[in-house]
Specification:
By secondary structure, the protein is α+β, with helices and mostly antiparallel strands. The protein contains seven helices and 24 strands. About 30% of the residues are buried.
Length: about 400
């Protein structure tokens, strides 16, 4: 049974200045627990400093001092590279008028899940605002090489980690998680916050919509539990209401999509079989990175297809929008398939391109099924505007 088709069948057979980045609720909760369980060193101090003395704080008017060696660096002081995405420029000396108190602190946490999810610990840092003592998790860099911070509640604005308190004694740092609240609840019930970044202000005209369904009943002789939550911001929307049949739509007549990145984490068990996976879709590159296990067999490979983006979507073609947004590569059976780095056992049904129906039947006819999906879409249109959609689905079947 081919794992990626198994992943694909789930949605088909069961009707199923500071940038902000969301993460699965499990990631956020595990992060908080990790911070509480370990002690850390204060690695660096961050200063807002007007290098040009023009009265304006530019994106590169930030100075970082490494507390261990005393070396100072200017953010974006040189052209960023793939290995140095923030362009750190070493300084020969400190400015004589540098403020005595830093603006904030940076702490390297080496959170194991960063390596697992993002294949690097280069962004496994937290930033602490000295005034509010809010703790912000660094998630990466945006296309303009600005810091991407965690958006915990899904409103498009970076959030300090809720319930986290920090204690700094010299260069020793510890955290406590007060009144733990599942980040699952926060991300599905985002609250508006003040202090939105410039990019958030730009998107303020785009309604942020949240919706949720929860259903538990007997259906055709089986106990069925279904839950779907989503939030979205932008001109592309996803309506998770049961009576809307989870349809995609547009708020405008047409939209030119220049790029689409999609990440999906899946946890499935049915009739004794288990599948866990992380799928990363790059529509512009035509690539799908598949990681996970199925029945104890590991998979970590990439499938390549003809690029799906750029593409123009039309409001009066909802079926086409849904097909585009929920596209899954079907391996060699896909007419746009080019090549794959996946092992041969992954395609053991390659000679039967109708076997997808067999997988659908195996899942829908399962005696016991548990499924959780966390899906995030990051869509960029031709005007470089970002649209974000987060979907959480949970199914449970007991016959």
């Amino acid at each position: 049974m081919r794992t990626s088709r198994l992943f694909a069948s789930l949605s088909l057979s069961i009707s199923v200045a500071l940038a902000a980045v969301t993460a699965p609720p499990s990631y956020v909760d595990n992060l908080k627990a990790f911070l509480q369980q370990h002690n850390f060193a204060l690695n660096g101090k961050f200063y807002m400093y007007d290098f040009n003395h023009d009265g304006t704080i530019a994106p590169n008017d930030w100075l970082y001092i490494d507390t261990a060696g005393g070396q100072a660096f200017r953010l974006m002081g040189k052209t960023p590279t793939q290995s140095d995405v923030f362009g750190w420029l070493p300084l020969s000396s400190l400015p004589s008028d540098l403020p005595s108190a830093p603006t904030g602190y940076f702490i390297f946490i080496n959170f194991p899940q960063d390596q697992q999810l993002f294949h690097t610990n280069a962004f496994s840092w937290v930033y602490v605002d000295k005034n509010s003592m809010g703790v912000y998790k660094l998630m990466g860099a945006d296309q303009n090489h600005n810091f991407d911070y965690l958006d915990e509640n899904g409103d498009g604005v970076p959030d300090p980690l809720s319930g986290i308190e920090i204690s700094i004694l010299g260069n020793s740092v510890s955290f406590s998680w007060e009144n733990p609240t599942s980040s699952q609840d926060l991300i599905h019930n985002p609250q508006d916050q003040s202090g939105a970044s410039e990019s958030s202000a730009q998107n303020s005209a785009w309604p942020k919509v949240t919706c949720s369904d929860e259903q538990s009943q007997q259906y055709h002789g089986m106990g069925l539990y279904y839950k779907a939550n989503s939030w979205y911001r932008g001109l592309i929307t996803y309506d998770c209401k049961i009576d809307a049949q989870n349809r995609w739509g547009l708020k405008v007549a047409s939209l030119e999509v220049s790029d689409l990145q999609r990440t999906e984490r899946l946890n499935l068990s049915y009739d004794g079989k288990r599948a866990n996976g992380l799928l990363e879709f790059n529509y512009k590159a035509g690539a799908v990175h598949i990681q996970g296990t199925f029945d104890g067999r590991s998979i970590d490979c990439v499938e390549y297809y003809k690029p799906l983006a750029p593409k123009t979507l039309y409001q009066d073609r909802p079926d086409e929008i849904q097909k585009y947004m929920e596209w899954y590569g079907d391996g060699p059976c896909d007419p746009d398939f080019i090549r794959s780095t996946c092992p041969s056992w992954f395609y053991d049904d390659v000679n039967d391109c109708h076997s997808q129906n067999n997988i659908n039947d195996a899942i829908t006819q399962a005696s016991h099924l548990d499924l959780e999906q966390n899906i995030e879409y990051s869509v960029e249109d031709s005007q470089s505007r970002k649209h974000t959609i987060h979907i959480f689905r949970k199914y449970k079947i007991d016959r």
